[in-house]
Amino acid sequence: MDWKPWAGLSISIRSLNSSIDHLIPVNRLLPSWTHPGVFFVCLLLTVSPAAGDDPLREAQAAFKSQQYDRALQLLDSSGKATATPEFRRLRTRTLAKLNRGKEALAEYEALTQPGKKDEPALLREVAFACIVPLLKDMRVQMRGAGYTALNEIESEESVPYFEDGLSDGAGQVRALAAEGLGSSKPAGARRA
Predict the structure, then answer these.
(1) Among 67, 101, 145, 192, whose CB has the most other CB atoms within 10 angstroms?
(2) Are 122 and 93 in contact (CB under 8 A)?
């Protein structure tokens, strides 16, 4: 005897059809597949709870769960909310997390048009997205420029990058990483 997962569904539809028959005697006028019970079940099967959700909220949820590609896909597919600051802010952060610095910077500039106030926390994320790829560049000058720029941010988030730079093959880059590491430590840690 084969087990058929859809067998329960057909039994449920038949029982739903028979329970609705006495309410609406439509089955005599229309074919059986057009019965209101069939439409009701099909409606329940096709409509998911998330179908009416706001794409921005779905993208925020994907971002929080670190699914940055999915968040960007949701943001790009929703064309209606592209001008809102909340949308641009989330898109900027998502692009920054994906290390797409140029695009994140363009989105940030669209968010903070001339006359609007800068957002330092968001700008820091964009700066990291622009600088971090330079730290792995094959050219010594570019890695050095990356560590110099990273030192300008003055953030404790840059400490792991400076620590990685201490093992770089070029002496100039190691010196810049050590300088950045020394300047990024809190004042209390330098005295100890």
Answers:
(1) 101
(2) yes
